[in-house]
Amino acid sequence: MDAAARSRLRRYAERLVEWNRRLNLTAIVEPGAIAELHLVDSLAVLRTLGEAGSLLDIGSGAGLPGVALACARPGLDVTCCDSVQKKVAFVKAVAAELDLSCRARAVRAAGHPDEERLPRAEAVVSRAFADPGRWLPLAASYLAPGGKVFAMLGRRVQVNDIAAAAAGCGLSVDIADAFSLPRSGASRTVVRLSPRR
Q: pTM of this prediction?
């Protein structure tokens, strides 16, 4: 990652802390924890993202992982959606300030991209859904042709749970990228899924 990307990520984290004092965007406020639990965790998607040119972040909250990914990869066209207006306002403000190719929509994704005015994207991701049985069918409805779904897993959801849920909605697991966060050692896995042919 180059110096410009690191600078954008630092400024994003600073704005997150500033806005959080007024709007309660996140419970994680200590700088080291923000770096690890928000930024490093979000940026792990880059390892399996490939050449995707567009990304939809469903249930983005304060822009995680969408804004972090836009900071790290400026050519990526990112759309963040969340049903909480104050979080969407933050994403819009920080994206404008950092000149990111990132827009935000205040909408609850329900699997109807045209009605919700959400794009179909080459990569669909969320950190907000824990239940793969609900997340995977929803995510699949926003895929552009050739697109991939990314499931970001903590310790409670296992890859086997994802594979079983994927089978029921026409997806299959391509890659399961397991890693540990550097400071806490917490286990994480990013699972990339594709539509079955």
A: 0.93
